[in-house]
Amino acid sequence: MYISTRGGEKLTASQAILKGLSSNGGLFLPEKIFNINFDKAFFNKDYKQIAFDVFKVFLDDFSDEEINYVVNSAYSVENFNEKFVGFKNFDGVTFLELYHGPTLAFKDMALTALPFLIEVSKKKNNENRKSLILVATSGDTGGAALSSFMKNAEFETVVLYPNGGVSEIQEKQMLYYTNDRTHAYAINGNFDDCQNFVKSVFNKYDKDGVLLSSANSINIGRLIPQVIYYVFSYAYMVKSGIISEGEEFNVCVPTGNFGDIFAGYLAKKIGVPVKQFICASNVNNVLTDFFNTGVYNRNRTFYKSNSPAMDILISSNLERLVYYACNENSERVNELMNLLKTEGEYRLNDDERAFLSNFSASFATESETLASINKAFNDLGYLIDPHTAVAYHVYNNLESNGARTLIVSTASPFKFPYTVASALNLSLLGGEVEIIKEISAKCEVAVPYGIKKLLSSIKPTILKTRDQIEDIVFYRNMSCTVKVPCSTANLGSGFDCAGIALSLYNTFRFEQAEKDEVVNFYGEDLSHNLVLKSYKRLFEETGKEYIPVKITLLDSEVPSSRGLGSSATCIVAGVLGADFMLKRVNSVKTLLTDMSHIEGHPDNVAPCYIGDMVCAFYNGETVNYYKYAVSDNLDFYAFVPNFELKTKASRSALPKNISYQDAVHNLAAVVNLGKAMELGDLDTIKYAFDDKIHQPYRFPLINGASELKKILESQGFAVALSGSGPTILAVGKNVTPNVPKLVGGVNWKMVKLEVEKFGATVL
């Protein structure tokens, strides 16, 4: 069970993950902590195996199957294509590299797991509301949260960061990972202003409509995954012969909000032999003073430094350590936190200070940070970022206790090019892109892919006031725009279950009105408009009071009755428009079930809504689905003829019975199809497109289709029909089709399409 540092609540792990912050503002901690079993076999385990063991200790109401789902989903090749963590060993010190994830910062190690922890927690607690993730960041948390949560349509994410208080690359990264469900907003102020706003929203949010959660380390679901890498580091150092089993070592952590170093403290509580925790701060040295004097005083000048992720004066996670220092006395914690709120200061007594003997602390000025980057490169040949440099400086200037020290390296040096270049006396001319190239060339270190893709990003800063953000968070705007991609359906062997979202779009505007109205739908009246029908259906399903609506078709790229899901775009848009008006009270699965019930099957609405490739099964009551991330190495072409093929005619051509052999063939093919799309395995896609059940009966209905299929296959393409219409889909790799405009007497329009990774979006 989990308890609040300020008392009054006791929850399971899944409930604590969903709630994030306790009702009285306290932070959740496990009521009891058990040691992990460090037997001989443990030291040969890989990262995922150790992650399972750590989660098993802390996730008291998760089954082994649920833990394995979280571990395998988070720590995947897609998220960590090189390695989970890295190590650099030198005399007396080991650097733990935590920047090999998608956003090149230690936050990835936890935030890739958090969406899946929340997903499982919602299922365990029968929670069907859509999740709103609200995040305050001083830099790296924002990009990592947006990257992690944007992949799942179950979540909406709002990230707040201080305007001018993060590095240019950090801001570019946050903006790069924004879409219509993930938002990054700058506010005038510092990180503490962002964090205080988030806490105030948690305290007064109307939770009937949306499940509010946090991706900050105030959420125990964000903190627990950070314990893993300390346990793994211990196993690595023992296995590598750097230390012996049971030998104590120090941990030195660049510290701002105190979450990362507190995760190390939890690792010690489950048995990792940490001798000393070294808390390294920058010029905002409130934590240094706390550990050296026992007084926490935030009434001081706030500095914007060259290690911006540590520019913090209110270290929220310190409350968890204070709880233990107060002998788990929640009344005492309440007293101290009230003093911090009202007077900006609290003081530990002698017994409480004595508890902190395992912690030491120091700080680095900006000039010392630069010197530390220079020293690491010139003495060790090792390129580090400014936050790691703060820790390295503190390590070099504290008295040694004889134990090996693990320094936590929290971010790629390429995320802070101006600071790193300045420290190494490199040119600062020519802008950020040129500086990154200069660092790479002079230091002979390759620019990571996660940085390369940001360099051409030009998304602008979005500056918001507190009131504007409250309007966004509380969903007061009763109008929205819904943009829905087209989709293939019946994909290859995946009849009525498999489809892919592709980059043609229909866009609709929904506005609250006095009475229902549709605009720009080319003669359709209210009674036949599929968008309005779907909109009304959601109100009927929920039993909520109906909200009349004006629906305007803003843009129409998806051709009607061509097999590209034009009706699916209408159904998805109608359901999402109603969901918006109802303050987004429904889960992804619930909405997808409604969409499938209206359409009759999920294979076209599921990818329209969710994005990428989706295999879905609808039993008449609910939908189960699995999403595949389609490889970027595949090229998709649609060949659209100048005539329609109605679904009724297409379905009437299908046989009433199929052979056992054909059924087995198609089942085997569809099982392979999703993974082949993820891996970009074109040969397996060709096999999976060899449908025995429906396409052989539909090709003869389309003039020229069989001839076009032969031409494309001779050029190396996998070929299938798109949906029940006459469009031909060709999938290839680095080859442009060479096809006559007229094939079989039919004029075929060739359209190159991208896979839409995120599905329908609501603006």
Give an account of the 3D structure.
Helix 21 packs across helix 23 (588-599). The chain starts with a strand and ends with a strand. The chain folds into 2 domains: 2-452, Rossmann fold; 477-763, Ribosomal Protein S5, domain 2. The strands form 6 sheets. Strands 16, 17, 18, 19, 20, 21 and 27 form a 7-stranded mixed β-sheet that branches. Strands 4-5-15-10-11-14 form a 6-stranded mixed β-sheet. The protein is 39% helix and 19% strand. It is of the alpha/beta class and 763 residues long.
CA-based gyration radius: 28 Å
CATH fold group of the largest domain: Rossmann fold
Structural class designation: alpha/beta
Kindly report how far apart the N and C termini lie: 39 Å
Q: How many helix segments?
A: 29
Strand element count: 27
Percent strand equals: 15-25%
Tally of distinct domains: 2
Largest sheet: 7 strands, mixed
Mean model confidence by pLDDT = 90
Percent of residues in helices: 25-40%
Low-pLDDT runs: none
Q: Determine and state the CATH class of the largest domain.
A: Alpha Beta
CATH architecture of the largest domain: 3-Layer(aba) Sandwich
Quick one: overall form?
Answer: globular
